[in-house]
Amino acid sequence: MTDVDQSLDLDHQHLLDRDCTTLSRHVLQQLQSFSAEAQDLSALMNRIALAAKLIARRLTRAGLVEDALGFTGRTNVQGESVKKMDVFANQVFISVFEQSGLVCRLASEEMEKPYYIPENCPIGRYTLLYDPIDGSSNVDINLNVGSIFAVRRQEGEDLDGSAKDLLQNGRKQIAAGYVLYGPSTMLVYSIGKGVHAFTLDPSLGEFILSSENIRIPDHGPVYSVNEGNFWQWDDPIRDYIRYVHRHEGYTARYSGALVGDVHRILFQGGVFLYPGTVKKPEGKLRLLYESAPLAFLIEQAGGRASTGTQDILDVIPDKVHTRTPLVIGSKEDVTLVESFIQERDREQKEREILTSQP
Ligand code: AHG
Ligand code: MN
Ligand code: MN
Fold first, then answer.
1. Tens digits of per-residue pLDDT, 195-218?
2. Ligand 1: which of 87, 285, 323 to mutate, judged by most atoms within 8 Å of the beta carbon?
3. Which residue's CA is minimally distant from atom 6 of ligand 1?
């Protein structure tokens, strides 16, 4: 065999290895085990991948299919107008998990209370938390949207159906990730062993490993925030934005879909913010199925996620749909935003001490 033949052979081997690293195989490789728990987690990720493929298929043809786009005319538990794609995608996740034996409960943005699959409950000790379509406002104009998911182990029997055990911090997540429906469909996930990205190969109908062990840069140029809310924010957030305006090396990017913005930041660095506003002091994003899964992922990639005063993964929600302000991305950029908030708190304390002195 000549050197050229040999290198071609190696190239082919390399390409085939790449093509063969499917999501379920990758999960098992990561866990280095064929235990029942590892098999469950692998099957769970496989089901999420199936949901992603079904949603991607509908999105690809949405403009041609009757009743795929537009509003339903209803509002969800958050008071937001529900789109037909929200309902479809919500139902897709339920359908792929029904009769799977894998999860007992599903909790989503689109359902006031968790959905139980009673026949799974004796065996499926997991709960899936998800945002079926993130960035719904992009759907009707064919821009990128996403799905966000997290898996938690069910604790206790939940006999009264209150799902109280879900009201715990984000460190209880055993898997989390998102699907980005863009020019390609990508699935990015972590089971606490780094962050890995898969790209859907439509000819194979499989998610194939495309980036392993992704590390987010410690600092990046992007700041991603809805500046239309500028006058609704507290002073420290306004001061941070004034800071980036006055310093070189920053650039604004905001897509209207958290998944898309966080995806860019994961690969290129920077910070995404959705702070509290006058109308919504806790911001807009929901902890259990938006902020906490992304925080888990970004921390696994070496970044940070904060409310501005506390790590997102330490926040304990008081209900399934609790919202928190979110500052997420590169370590140094998140810490810089926090420093503006700390500065204000310090000044406030000093003023209080001064005014309390006789
Ligand atoms: P969803 O479509 O699940 O309700 O989430 C939309 C979120 C998020 O994706 C995005 O970053 C943010 O809302 C955009 O909100 P604004 O239009 O207020 O900027
Ligand atoms: Mn969302
Ligand atoms: Mn949504």
1. 999 999 999 999 999 999 999 999
2. 285
3. 135
- Same-domain pairing of 205 and 257: no
- Please state the separation of Cα 346 from the chain's center in Å: 32
| pLDDT single digits (tens) 38-60 | 889 999 999 999 999 999 999 99
Q: Spell out which residues have Cβ within 5 A of ligand 3, the ion.
A: 109, 131, 133-134
The distance from CA 175 to its chain's CA centroid, rounded to whole angstroms, is 11
Q: Confirm or reject: Cβ of 100 under 6 Å from ligand 1.
A: no
Measured in Å, residue 246 CA sits from the centre of ligand 2 at 31
Print the domain residue range for 346.
Answer: 222-356
Among the residue ranges 81-85, 317-321, 322-326, the one predicted with the least confidence is: 81-85
Ligand 1 touching residue 225 (CB < 6 A): no
Clarify whether residues 207 and 228 are in a common domain: no
Q: Is the CB of 265 under 6 A from ligand 1?
A: no
Provide the 3-class DSSP secondary structure of residue 275: coil
Please identify, by atom number, the ligand 1 atom nearest to the C-alpha of residue 274.
11
CA of 197 to the centre of ligand 3 (A): 21
Last-in-domain residue among 164, 192, 211:
211
Alpha helices for 22-123 (secondary structure H): 23-31, 36-60, 84-97
Instruction: Verify that 305 and 270 share a domain, yes or no.
Output: yes
Instruction: Kindly tell me if the per-residue pLDDT of 12 is higher than 80.
Output: no
Evaluate whether residue 155 is within a structural domain: yes
Domain total of the chain: 2
Give the ligand at the shortest distance from the Cα of 135: 1
Nearest-atom number in ligand 1 for the CA of 261 is 11
Kindly write down the DSSP assignment for every residue of 178-240, as one continuous string: EEEESSSEEEEEESSS--EEEEEETTTTEEEEEE-S----SS-SEEE--GGGGGGS-HHHHHH
Q: What is the pLDDT of residues 154-196, one digit of tens each?
A: 988 877 888 899 999 999 999 999 999 999 999 999 999 999 9
| CA–centroid distance, residue 261 to ligand 2 (Å) | 12
In a domain, residue 244? The reply is yes
Cα separations (Å) of 63 from 60, 86, 93, 132, 139? 8, 15, 22, 19, 10
Q: Are residues 119 and 159 in the same domain?
A: yes
